[in-house]
Every structure is written in C-alpha cells, then in structure tokens.
Write a structure and sequence with these properties.
The complex is a heterodimer of chains A (121) and B (415).
Chain A (H helix, E strand, L loop, with lengths): L2 E4 L8 E7 L2 E5 L4 H12 L2 E2 L2 E7 L5 E6 L3 E2 L3 H9 L3 E2 L7 E3 L9 E3 L9
Parallel strand pairs in A: 5-8
Antiparallel strand pairs in A: 1-2, 2-3, 4-7, 5-6, 6-10, 9-10
Chain B lengths: L1 E9 L3 H12 L5 E4 L15 E3 L8 E2 H13 L4 E4 L2 E6 L4 E6 L3 E12 L3 E3 L2 H4 L9 E3 H11 L6 E5 L3 H12 L3 E6 L9 H8 L6 E2 L2 E7 L6 E6 L13 E4 L2 E4 L3 E3 L2 H5 L24 E3 L10 H20 L7 E8 L1 E5 L2 E3 L4 E8 L6 E7 L2 E8 L8 E6 L7 E7 L1
Parallel strand pairs in B: 1-2, 1-8, 2-5, 8-19, 10-17, 11-12, 11-17, 12-13, 20-27
Antiparallel strand pairs in B: 3-4, 6-7, 7-8, 9-18, 14-15, 15-16, 20-22, 21-23, 23-26, 24-25, 24-27
Classes of the chains: A alpha+beta (121), B alpha/beta (415).
C-alpha cells in the first residue's frame, strides 16, 4: 500500500510517496537522501517524543514538565499520555529524574525536563 | 537599593542568560540580570515540547531543558547576579536603570553597558479588531500554553485556532493531547509562517485541518465563546468573501497571530528603531544608536529558533563587556539595505573592519528557488542559490567585512 508524507527534514517539505515492493521500502518525491531516510522511518515505524506536564507536590511551581527520554511508537502515544495524566512528582525535582519508568513497555522512561525546588517555608 | 555593575542585562530569558555568560567570559567583572518573573528562563519555561538546541547543542532538547543549561551555568558563575521579581521601568542613555520590586523596593542601577533582552509579546484580539461580542474564552496561544503547561489549567474543550504560527501549531497538538477537540486552524495567508515540521507533527499527526486564505470574521457568545464565523478571504486583498462565511462551534479561540518585540523601554531611551523589525537598529556588535546600549533576542527581531537567539546574545554580551572595559573599537559605519524579496536585515549597520560577519534576514514571501546577492556598490560580495526561502525561516549569509567599503545591499529574487 502506498503512503504519502510531507518530509520535515528541511523547509522544502517535499511530498513523499512510500511503498513496499519485494520486501524493500521505496521512496519517491524526495530531493535528497535525508528525505529518503525520513520516508522509510515514517513508513516502517513512525516515532515521536511525547512531552507534557505533571503536578508537583510541595514545589516552588505547581507543575513540572516531562518528556519521554526516547521517541515512542506513534501507536503508543495515547497510552503514554494516559500514564502521564495519572502521574505526579514530589519536590525537589531535577532535570532527568525518572517520573514513570518504561512507560511504553519498550524502554522509554518519562523524565522531568525542569528543576523544581522545595517550596520555601 | 543602589547597585553598580559593568554590564546590566534586562531580561532573564534565553537572550539575557546567554548575554550574561558571554559578557562575563569577555571580562566584565560583575554582570546583573534584572528579571520580572519569579524564575529565570523566560518563555522557554512554558515551551515544554522538544526541538530546541539542534544547532546550538547538537541535540534535541525541550525548552525548559535548554533554559536550565544556561541557568545552571549562570548560577555557578561568580560575578553574575540575577534579581528576580524585579521589573525595569526606565533605561537611560547614561546607562542608569530604574527598576521596582516587591522584595527590594526601588532599585537604582548604574551600569557601564546595558543589554536589552526583554523578548517579545503576542498580538492580541485588539490588534486584529475582530468583530463580535466580548466573551470569555479568547486567549493568545502563548497564554493558553502557560495555563496548560505551567499552571495545569485547561482553557477549554472545543478549540478553534486563528493563525498558523509555531505557537498556534504547537498548541493545537498540546490541547489535543490534553483531551480537547481542536476543530481547525485558520490562516489568512496562503502559506504558514510556522515551521514545516510543526505542520506535520502537530496538525497532520492529529488530523487537524488547516485552512489557508481563511480568517475569523465574528466571535459569538455572551458569557463564554459559543462559536466563530469563519470565511475565506480574497488572496489579493485579504478581504473576507462573506458568501463563504460559516459558523463553527467552539468554546475557546486561540490566537497565534504574530509577535511584537517589547520595546517600550527602548523607545523611551531614545534609541533609533527599525520599522520593519519593530526592534532597535544595531550594528554587527548588536550595539544600538545609543553607545553602550546593546540589544539581542526577540526584542531585536523575532526569531524562529532559540539557537539563533543564544548566538546573537553572545555577540551582544561580549561586545557589551568590551564597551564596559573601553575596548570596543569605534570606526565608520555603513548601512545594510534590504532589496527585492528581503524584508529586513539584522544588523542594519556595519562597522568597517576585518573578519567575517553574519547577516541575518527574512524574506517577505516564498522563493522557490531563490537567488541571493550581496553587493557593495558594484562589487558582488556573495551570490548563492537556495532551493527554497520562506518567510518562516530566518536566513543567514556570511560576508567578508574587509571587502565592505560602502553601503551593502542584500537582495533575494526568483532564481
């Protein structure tokens, strides 16, 4: 089955057509090698980094921003967001602290992306 | 409170932090950052999505992570002080500053050099004069971004977004991921000013329609927004074609309709402004028309990448330090003049000298392919062809300052 994408590798935004033939993934419409690589990735396993915020208990701020520390499969985004929606952290938090380990079952952790210090007494 | 310093920096966002660090590295003994928010980091604090730092750090970071690297370095550097919750109300040509703060009261600062790094703010409904009632539920995209990402509050459930700038696109995905239904994004122009990858990853990924040549002609609702009237516009006149008007139900309208450099302090200080950028006119050192006052970041011209802000701020900070130490060279200046498709160039002036200098510019519409020519009189300093130039992406060209003998023109045309 042929799939169509817009390449995001540069501002050109080439319209790509990607399909599989005899076990090989083929790309047309690209004007450079980066476009081909992007097309193949999007066709075989599109991935995204998911970012959000979680509530903080006892912190200087009420929310702490988080992300998945590696891209997760696009099909897993809803599951990852649901897990983040139920999560919270306790201050102090530093960048990189794990909030939810192995959130997608494939080794991606949800980690803090900002520092939140203890609320001053 | 009375303070003195070598370099005072107004604003503790990405521009101010980078300027402070490079001013200190360039020999300024004490650097003071004045920040009106309770935390440093500026707008990056609410830009929790990733994609920052690819050029500057060679890796993809989220906004808060990008900011934290500079905050950590500033906090660990002796000679850099950050005054938070402190709002500057006046800057003067003698490099004195008046600020106010709940904690410190009236703050008088006497600096040897000043860096303006106040950033920009969003255009609002008032700037568009959109007809209709005045209900709750009309937000700028950045305001909604702060509410959702930093306060944990959802502005609405059924959203229409006007304007396809990057913040609008990012918020389309963010609101969808938080459970809202984003009905559509309307863009009055025939193209988006947002980055291509945001159109793909924010809109296409989430099946959100983007309508070009389309605007909102009326806002409905008494207490709360109940919907908007959407109409196509004539691409030439940009006037709405009322026969195409249709009602779209929503409880929230987000506006992503442009950013304005926040230059009240700059104009009050009598600094010469560029009418196109709405920022100060500067030379390659990012020095304004008032000697010793420098500008960088979104207060100078609106950037699309924070990486470029950091680089520009380093230039401003380093030269502010040199000015404070009395080592900034003074020489004749020439003008840099935009031509053809080029809307503006920063810096607007060049001080004659040696070495390479980078010119940053933006085109007014898409050129595919584009031919760029930089000339000084009849002499061609540089000519290149590029596959595409769009208004959404800032362009850069490096020229040899040694060859600059008079005014420089930067021209883009269809190749």
């Amino acid at each position: 089955m042929k799939k169509e994408f817009i390449c995001i590798s540069c501002p050109m935004g080439c319209p790509l057509t990607v399909w599989e033939e005899n076990g090989e993934v083929l790309v047309s419409g690209n004007t450079c090698p980066r476009g081909k690589a992007y097309g193949i990735q999007e066709f075989t396993c599109p991935q995204r980094v998911v970012t959000s915020s979680v509530p903080v208990r006892g912190g200087e701020q009420s929310m702490c921003s988080v992300k998945t520390d590696k891209p997760v499969a696009k099909t897993e985004i809803a599951k990852v967001l649901a897990a983040i929606y139920g999560a919270s952290v306790k201050a102090p938090v530093k960048v990189g602290d794990i909030v939810i380990p192995n959130v997608d079952g494939n080794g991606a952790n949800v980690v803090a992306t900002r520092r939140v210090l203890d609320r001053k007494k | 409170m009375i303070k003195t310093c070598d370099v005072a920096i107004i604003g503790g966002g990405p521009a101010g932090l980078a300027a402070a660090l490079s001013a200190r590295k360039a020999g300024a003994e004490n650097v003071l950052i004045l920040e009106r928010d309770s935390f440093p980091g500026g707008i990056l604090q609410q830009c929790i999505h990733n994609g920052f730092g690819l050029h500057y750090f060679g890796q993809e970071l989220t906004g808060p992570e990008y900011a934290q690297r500079f905050i950590d370095e500033a906090e660990n550097t002796d000679g850099i002080e950050i005054l938070l919750d402190t709002m500057v109300i006046e800057v003067h040509g003698d490099k004195s500053i008046i600020a106010v703060s709940n904690k410190y009261g009236l703050v008088n600062v006497q600096a040897k050099a000043v860096v303006l790094a106040m950033g920009c703010r969003e255009r609002t409904r008032g700037a568009l004069s959109t007809p209709g009632t005045r209900p709750a539920g009309v937000y700028t995209a950045g305001c909604a971004q702060r509410l959702v990402n930093m306060e944990g509050l959802m502005p609405g459930k059924k959203i229409v977004i006007l304007g396809s700038g990057d913040i609008g696109l990012i918020m389309a995905r963010r609101m969808t991921w938080e459970g809202a239904k984003v009905q559509m994004v309307c863009e009055i122009m025939p193209f988006s000013s947002g980055l291509n990858r945001n159109i793909v990853q924010c809109l296409k990924d989430n099946d959100i329609p983007l309508y070009f040549n389309t605007t909102i002609v009326e806002i409905h609702g008494k207490e709360r927004v109940t919907g908007v009237t959407v109409a196509e516009v004539d691409p030439k006149t940009r006037l709405p074609k009322m026969e195409t008007a249709r009602f779209v139900e929503c409880d929230t309208l987000l506006l992503s309709v442009g950013l304005i450099p926040e230059n009240e302090l700059t104009t009050a200080a009598g600094i010469e402004m560029d009418r196109v950028t709405s920022g100060a006119k500067v030379d390659a050192a990012r020095q304004t028309s008032v000697p010793g006052i420098f500008a960088c970041g979104n207060v100078l011209h609106v950037h699309d990448l924070v990486d470029n802000v950091s680089q520009e701020a380093q230039i401003a900070g380093e030269n502010a330090a040199k000015y404070a130490l009395g080592t900034l060279p003074v020489a004749d200046t020439v003008k840099v003049i935009p031509e053809g498709g080029v809307r503006y160039v920063v810096p607007q002036q060049l001080v004659k000298g040696e070495g390479n200098v980078a010119l940053y510019f933006r085109v007014g519409s898409a050129y595919k392919p584009a031919r760029l020519t930089v000339k000084c009189g009849d002499a061609e300093l540089k000519t290149t062809k590029k596959q595409i130039m769009t208004p959404g992406e800032m362009e850069k060209v490096v020229i040899d300052l040694g060859k600059v003998t008079g005014d420089v023109t930067v021209k883009v045309e269809e190749a």
